[in-house]
């Protein structure tokens, strides 16, 4: 509230008792408003501090959960490699997964289970890594989800080509069967690079940013776990 034009003129031009009383009244009202405003600002600041603290607590919780989830993935991968006597390959496989995530925007929580599934099916790490990379390209090239592609590959490996033909890869069941698994997989190299190409789109760039933010959260969460 400000002094009215009427009060200001009277107060400044002549000693007007009535004007002075009105001015005094308005000044008191103005002081009251200032005091109330200051109180509200303090209240807002306090509320903002509480909100910031709550936000930090939630961020810390989510970061810790992400770090714990990463630890579980690492442990599962370790156990899978141990089952085929290649636990010593864990550091290299983790690098392979991280590189694959950066190249395709497919997150570790999808890649690790997929690799474990292939290792269980083939019993061979190198073959599993090759098939996983191929499956990602086929998925990107055909629009089929990764799990469907992996299922189709696993079935084709044991002579059932119906699922892989259903992905729309350009071969009928009979044609795929006549080629055999190895030749079929070679023929599907036509999709090579499809997964990486998707990351260069606008949607792919946004997904890359999202994944990077998630990784940063995991790193912070690991720090919380260290100091817990």
Category by helix and strand content: mainly alpha
- What is the helix tally? 10
Please summarize the sheet with the most strands: none
Mean of the pLDDT scores? 75
- The number of distinct β-strands equals 0
CA radius of gyration is 33 Å
Report on the structure:
This protein has 228 residues and is mostly helical. It folds into 2 domains: 5-54; 61-227, no CATH class. It is 82% helix and 0% strand. The protein is built from 10 helices and no strands. Helix 1 crosses helix 2, helix 4 packs across helix 5 and helix 5 (125-142) packs across helix 6. The longest helix has 67 residues, at 17-83. The radius of gyration is 33 Å and the shape is globular. Residues 1-16 have low confidence and may be disordered.
């Amino acid at each position: 509230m400000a002094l009215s034009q009427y009060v200001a003129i009277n107060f400044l031009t002549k000693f007007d008792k009535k004007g002075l009383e009105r001015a005094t009244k308005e000044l008191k009202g103005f002081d009251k408003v200032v005091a109330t405003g200051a109180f509200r600002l303090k209240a807002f600041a306090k509320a903002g501090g509480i909100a910031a603290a709550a936000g930090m607590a939630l961020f810390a919780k989510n970061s810790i959960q992400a770090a714990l989830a990463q630890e579980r993935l690492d442990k599962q991968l370790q156990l899978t490699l141990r089952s085929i006597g290649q636990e010593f390959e864990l550091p290299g496989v983790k690098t392979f997964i991280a590189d694959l995530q950066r190249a395709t925007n497919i997150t570790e929580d999808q890649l690790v289970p997929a690799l474990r599934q292939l290792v269980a099916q083939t019993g061979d790490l190198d073959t599993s890594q090759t098939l996983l990379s191929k499956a990602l390209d086929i998925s990107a090239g055909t629009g089929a989800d990764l799990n469907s592609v992996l299922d189709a590959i696993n079935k084709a490996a044991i002579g059932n080509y119906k699922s892989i033909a259903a992905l729309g890869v350009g071969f009928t069941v009979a044609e795929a069967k006549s080629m055999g698994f190895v030749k079929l997989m070679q023929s599907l190299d036509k999709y090579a690079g499809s997964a990486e190409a998707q990351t260069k789109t606008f949607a792919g760039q946004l997904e890359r940013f999202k994944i990077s933010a998630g990784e940063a959260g995991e790193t912070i969460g690991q720090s919380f776990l260290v100091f817990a």
